[in-house]
Amino acid sequence: MQKMDHSVRIEIFRFGLLAAALTISGKPSLLWVLAAFAIYRIMRSDFAQRAGKTLKRDLKGLYLLVRIKLEIKKRLAANRPVHEIWLERVNEHPQKEAAVEIETGRRISYRELNELMNKYANFFSSQGYKYGDVVALFMENNIEFIAAWFGLSKIGVVSAFINTNLKLEPLGHSINVSKCKCVITMSTLLPMLDSTKKEGVIANNMKVYLCDGEVPTAENLKKSLVTASENEPPNCPELNFQSVLCYIYTSGTTGFPKPSVIKHCRFYWAACSSSEGFGVKKEDVLYITMPFYHSAASMLGVGTIISKGTSIVIRKKFSASNFWKIRTMYGNGLRREIWVEFTTRFGIKRVGELYGATEGISNLANLDNHVGSCGFFPIYPFTSLFYPVRLVKVDEETGEIIRNKKGLAVPCQPGESGEMVGIINNKDVFRRFDGYVDKGDTEKKIYRDVFQKGDMCFASGDVLHWDELGYLYFKDRKGDTFRWKGENVSTIEVEGILQPIKSIVVCTVYGVEVGKQEGRAGMTALQMEDGADLKELLSEAAQRFTANLASYAIPIFIRICKEVEKTGSYKLKKTDLQKAGFDLSKGMDNPFRADLFRLGALVAVLSIVNRKSWWIVLAAFALYRLMRTDFARRARKTLKRDITGIMLLIRIKRELNKRIKANQPSHEMWMERVRENPLKEAAVEVETGRSITFRDMNQLMNKYANYFKGLGYKHGDVVALFMENNIDFLAIWLGLSKIGVVSAFINTNLKLEPLAHSINVSKSKCIITTTTLLPTLDKAKAEGLVNKDMKAFVNSGDVDTAENLEENMKGTNGDEPQKCKDLDFTSVLCYIYTSGTTGFPKPAVIKHCRYSLAITAAVEAFGIKIEDRIYITMPFYHSAASILGAGALVARGSTIVIRKKFSATNFWKDAIAHNCTCSQYIGEICRYLIAQKPTSEEKQHKIRTMYGNGLRREIWTEFTSRFGIERIVELYAATEGNSNTMNLDNHVGSCGFMPIYPFMWAFSPLRLLKIDEETGQLIRDKNGLAIPCNPGETGEMVGVINNKDLMQRFDGYVGKEETNKKIYRDVFKKGDQVFASGDVLHWDELGYLYFKDRKGDTYRWKGENVSTIEVEGILQPIKSIVECTVYGVEVPKQEGRAGMTALQMVDGEDLEELLADAAKRFTANLASYAIPIFIRICKEVDKTGTYKLRKTELQKAGYDLAKVDNDPVYIFNSSERKYVPLTAALQKQIDSGEYTRI
Q1: Nearest by Cα to 1229 from 1217, 1237, 1220
Q2: Which of 27, 77, 161, 788 is most buried (CB neighbours < 10 A)?
Q3: Given this model, what pLDDT does residue 15 score?
């Protein structure tokens, strides 16, 4: 026999006692016994226990409701508007302080505030405003807002509270939909209003009053009120307690705000409820930081001066640092996770958490400080007579109300969740729903036939949970939106962004809960086509999200499903997906069963083998489990790559150690090549056909060395090379290095100030240039930017302002110059310029040892052989050409083929004509080549390897397959830095790798560190140290500095200040240093690195770094610009980022003149790649709290006309050298790649 349940035994015992009592009592007492037993049983029930716990709360709520109802009934009987109640407060304490403005210190008494209200009423009455007219209040928090609102109400004029964050169409819609006759605003908001008028969104002749100043586009209301009467205006006969007081806007289904109707009775009911419910007394001082256009501030905050006669303290905008000494706080959104910490830390005795809708009737409040609750329903049904609110069950999938067989809604029971509704009874002020100005919007918020046929309920759209004690907890928004970072996100909008991705079969977007975060984070579940590339899909999704969505709307998680389940009506099922969220243990294969099977197999094996062999079995099992881990799986995939990297590193280190031991300058390595093959062709110029052997090249180098030595140039002197690509560039550079003279490589695109800075900062003694570049140099001299007495040479040709080196060196000896005693492996070889934080190029110091390291690493990694011919189209002033390109000449003895300037039409022709086997690229070169029409030459060439940086993964495969390139070596490198890596295994899109196993980090100085996306600063832990990234994360690339190790040293720049700016200290341990690259890279789970962006004040375009500070500096003298900022924006099918300038103009200035002036200054001072492609004319350039310009949102919007808030955008027409309007048609051509003149 089974053991009897304890609860059953208790029931049997109770009935036994009842039977005993009945047997010993007389018949007259039977009724009393049964009644007593029934009461006993009821009081012992779970319901009674719960009711006992909440009785005090429920009685308090009932008593509060009665008090409020009695007050409202009294006012209904009097049928007087709200300002009559206000006059009662004025008469009670006319001298009491009614309000004070924190920012201005302005204070006003009840009597003075009433007189100011009367001024508003009488002035607007004199202007013809009457009962039923609407006036828009587009104002920040101040006393004038209150005075205008209640003053206008005295003459029956309705105030429409306009959100001060709105611009253009949303702003215009808010004013137009409420049929406003005029707008009252203030000077800080007037420009926004004027822009809306200018765009034709609101009528140009709409009257505008300015409450705090005088401007041509608005009437000075402050001045007009001076003469207005302070006496009470005549009573408006139509005005009563049921009249409309104001419109307060809520979010609309059309995407625009919709005005909800607030009548005098509703306002006073809300004000009474809040002051009574939260225990507000007339001696209280209420601190208001919420905006007045929000009902929380205007009704629940300002309302207390009318309902209770309190004082209010007004702050224009919330400030966390100026807040405390408060006993009660009320509002909504305080999460239960921080509730106790908040109240304890700040000494808040009472929190009045609310649930309410501005326009609705389903409003509640937390009366007893119950943690996390936003209100309550009593759990006993009879109290529903007093409350108009209910919870009804909804279908979790569709969000529709669940109805029974009679077609009525199914109410929730305690312990269940559902949608909050309010029962509508327009005869009861507590249950009336006045709706919105637009009847269509009103109808959308009404459910019909809910609890009985013919009834109506207000549909809140909010899902709440009703616990067993009757407490309510806000759970979620219903339908196709979720809330994240304080904003509503439309799932339909996000899903629409993914529609064009052809590799997606189906997708759905939903919100998921994240621990200790408000709202729900976005998550996308999608099903891929079979065989589609996941990485490409994720990359495209990320690109489309960041280009089209605000940051808060970008899905945080993506789940790749085998199948996205649908309902019978083919709607996507989200319920199970939402429940699983991002929890890896849900919705996946059950790993627990697999583990049980493995353990079972292990036990079985152990049971049949000898005990002495157990350690072998256990070791094998441990190895098996280790090899089955995700880490081992990833390690296996990258083992070959990593071993290749280690072997390469060993070969490079062995070569360098040999060079370090010899301690000879790099031209000694060159001499080895000359001795090996003196008659071999060293270099050839494509345009001129000039060719030179190793021996002849060396003799030319010696001539330059001996000539300048004869002029007195010595070790440590600097000579500027301002030359195009040619043989003489190399001969001068390496020739001068033999006598210890440093060459400074000057960018041939520079003009005027940037050119002069580059020459002057390097302290060059003279300049060597060409006849084509001499005029640019002469102009800089003429402007006084370069010393007119500085000696200038041209490599050949007779000119007036420079000496002809070819002519001067005719008698110069070609023998080796005398060895320089001070010259060794650590001496400075040259300066190569990078973009500078000052806005001008800064010279990076390249020592002989660094040069030797770079060229050795290049030829080893790229697999360059002595018989190879390297085709160089990049400029020699760039390290890619001078070090990685021409370096093959010195390190391997290969031949280099030099083109002065890249030509897409001649690229393959040149490669064939000169038998080239290797070449360089930047991303733009690859794109230009793909854009050419197919030719026979592109398949006949012998180029097998190309190396460089910037080849986009989108065209990588197309490029290699179309042109038959066997190997692409994508690089990540900094001219001056030690954080360099490369793609060794043709992995598409990657610019290098970092091994995923930590023990290999000892071989490389590379690290990725986490950074703050907004500020770009390193994120540091509690010890002040940086936080390294893990595989799968994104961060800033750094190189660990160890000046004793050649591969980890950082020689920096000519200027010590510039050097120090590129060093982070106390990174991995106190006292250490790392090189700060300023580049953000992504490190995937296999260890591959992908360049993501430039951090800070530079961006990359046309293969060049552009300094935003330099470009911004060009615009500084233009007085019609208030503020400007420069940044890079992504352009589809283009490498890097195109320059864009956002600027704010001085009011009244001529736009065409500004654009012409900007174009003129840009073309005169900047290289072509640095000229901004786009200009956006903003109403205001947003700044951070520390007055730094915000570029994040501007960059996200880019040049997309749909995202620039109707700001005009202009594009640079390079052929006409002027800015022209960007049209939607032109933007479409740019996005599709049809427009090629960028």
Answers
A1: 1237
A2: 161
A3: 56
